[in-house]
């Protein structure tokens, strides 16, 4: 088990794999002739082509939906015909309408836009070849990470360029609402899923049958974002499991021989939405997706966003991954079309796979020099960074040191080979002039220009301004956090426990994984493997001695360990702040709507007073994560009243968690032991 | 019978024959109650030397020394085999089959292109049995002494013993071809009648000898393999000489038959009286009535005649506890769990079936073959499902997938006239070009109709109409008939494959209708993937057919074979792949076996198949009936 995926994750990028710039070789031909290129994917070995209408018909007439429609009709008291009508409408709203002419339009537009935005779009050809092979064999699920709206069609664009069958893509319903664009997206293969489906049984049934039918028919790859939505922080998000189950079910039930999962890691040097995201995290609502909004955003298109790397991972066979994890005979006793919830085993398997995919995405993603620089910059106190800046050569030096560490930890870097190191860093600073600027040999954090005002900024307003800049910088740090997170947790455990005993450290490590389980993605039930991995990586970079019973600091330790601890500081501080807020300031019962502004105000106050060193506590993402973590740990319970979720705090438990995190009391694992089969 | 179109004289002749056999039955019946008299009778028959075939008036197929007419290390008759003649053309030798003496021009190319085999690379079998490789028998002197006094013939000869030490699993035949002989029976006995069996079983119990019943020897479940851990003397009880039809009851349409009779003899003898059982498993040339009962056999024409459990009216079985049989021959009883079902499928673990009353039917007036081509397998399965739904399945309906269709094509004998080949070309053109069928997807269903002429024609039309709804095109009687002829020669083909590094086997399952397509696809794909994973250098042949339809599902038959050149332990690889394929069958809702049985090959899955309680029930029956494990072949449990 421990090794199941170690071999897998590394595949995407075996030693310097070759990346090709897809903009480069196409720049010579015109956009129009590119859009009208002959598109001839090799034929699929088993699957027949299936039009959008045929797909909808198959879904509508499925035995499964027949069962569900009858059930719903009985439950709601409406007639079967009415329910069928509802299903038909839902399908209309949902369904894709993949057509080559739309793809050509999309390819034409994208090429124009991409050439302006990006210096290069790098793609690993080997991965594409493997994908092309896999696409002929059986259903393929493309699973990209989601960091930008650009992700949405870039995969289709690449597939179009390389003669690989075009995917149908799961998208959020708001996109469908955009005038024209919605229809173009549909034509490009998008199908639309409502947010917050909750307990809408009929909708859930239609969606799952739609997805399963796509998988069963295998006429096109299916693309979906396992994280569910764009990550506002550029960190991986905990995977969503519903879609994963829909995809696995046809395999579990033997309706397909295998399902191929293909993780795709998209890494940006600079993300188009960077400032938007930071403001969103600070509570400025996200602008609604609309066509006019898109046109207005065209000023974003004036800038350069550096390179983009799209790394196609090795195809992973669900059949092989699930060997010994799922008993497919369990479906022998009932009609397979009968609506039934996946059992615990199937759920655990789906969850495991979803987490595994996120992990592979992380491992396959490329870390940019800028991301490492962001790690270094954020170790400087914010006030110092805005006012005094950091000496450029110091930044260079530390970044190069970190680069070595990252390589030791197995990171894949997108470090330009031809340029000298200072040049690389200079151009990174130049590319990110929206976040930092360089003056007189020093690098400073850039605060956004404020419009002219009558009165000077209040300290609170100023805090928000700084916070926006910090969060932007932090999001670039987050791009590479996954490289360091396991060793960093071990380093943190060492500082928390002040112990060198392996078992004590392991306990604390598990506790930390538990607390930060929403912050960083860990495969469930693999804590001790993660711990081993952390030990071996820190041993490799000579920071630790690891023996049977003990873990002790070695030569490089005094340099590496504090750096790693510092890397996680903002998270620890933010969590402690939230614990304190819950224990001291909040009522025992509150709603999410009340919680977020209150905790933000509290954090702002502490930042202003200088008591709280990190601005990251202001991020709504961290705040929500803390709540989820406490829910998971049982220190907070959730009850549902009408629209709003209501939370009830067990202050003693929260305080205890805080004490454990601070090392005042030894940690205890509160969660039940994970399923042994995982 | 009277409806038979044959002339008056022959009809009278037949009637006379019936009466004779009925009388013969009557004559024997009183003897049943008097063991002494019967014993004499048995002995008299047994001492008559009937070793040469064809001489015996009844014309029974199987002599005591089977090796005289059958291969000791391959399938079937010694005189019938495939070979490549001097011109490099495939040929089927002998005179017994319709294919005998014919050239099969397409076989070489098919063998080469399908398996990557080559006529240059031969893997010949050990030609003759090396008796020194055979372990000397463990003789239980006391048992032999007493047995001798009963007059039942027996043998310690190596050839006799080796012949009865195996069925026809790949690993069994492979070992024989290599001249490797493992644990084999220590002696062979040939009882002549029920009472002989009673005596043998009594003696075996008395002297603690292990008995393994042997019927036709066509098992493909390792059922005949001697457990290597068995230390007692193992006696193979060969039922082949118990091969008489004891009586025919024309009023009730039943016949009492001794269990050792092989299928072809049973049918031929009944046919002489104008009857048939209609039970035709693919192995019917060699498999025996007792074997059918012991394994829950299924016949090709079960749609009309039923499977063995539908055909059997009465069973007599000798067990270590005594004889088990029902008191009457009522057609159905509500008397607790049917004790016949303890015997049917018991695979020789409880005792020896000695006599069976089986249903018979007047021979059908008219038989007609047919075939339908479908554009793809999916359509074909949909058609079979519809046929089953309307309950109008012909005597036999089988659907071959594309690979098997091609295989069948490769087995076409050389056509004699230019006209036929022209017609063939025309047919091919019509189907692939005019009708747009893809030759790499199309598949064929073969059909067999039986009954009176008018009804057959009516029935035929009904089935073809359904087929048309699923895009099926009628493809002629010849194609259909050839499909069924192939059934009997296909087993010979494996021996040819083995001469050229190709090993393979078939296995079967039964599965609900909604799973048929899925199981076919997944099992075939699993075989391909496993072969690749296990280092097989050439793509395997992995193909299937749907061979039986039921109300709630179908029986699916898989063939799988590969070229094993470059593998150090081909049989082990083969077994691993077969194991994986069976796992896949089970994971796809398929049964452990439809009619091959469990034997020792599939024992490991019995518990999950019948549940722990079910196993306990079977075990307790075994413990009661045979507490000392006299019937120690260790099948099933």
From TrEMBL, chain A:
Pfam families: Acyltransferase (PF01553), GPAT_C (PF19277)
Entry's localization field: Membrane
Transmembrane segments: none
GO biological process annotation, one example: ether lipid biosynthetic process
Classification via SUPFAM superfamilies: Glycerol-3-phosphate (1)-acyltransferase
Pathway: Phospholipid metabolism
Residue intervals of the Phospholipid/glycerol acyltransferase domain: 140-269
Record's GO cellular component terms: mitochondrial membrane; peroxisomal membrane
Official protein name in the record: Dihydroxyacetone phosphate acyltransferase-like
Alphabetized SMART domains for the sequence: PlsC
Keywords: Acyltransferase, Membrane, Transferase
Entry similarity comment: Belongs to the GPAT/DAPAT family.
GO molecular function: glycerol-3-phosphate O-acyltransferase activity; glycerone-phosphate O-acyltransferase activity
Record InterPro entries: GPAT/DHAPAT (IPR022284), GPAT/DHAPAT_C (IPR045520), GPAT/DHAPAT_LPLAT (IPR041728), Plipid/glycerol_acylTrfase (IPR002123)
Main subcellular localisation: membrane
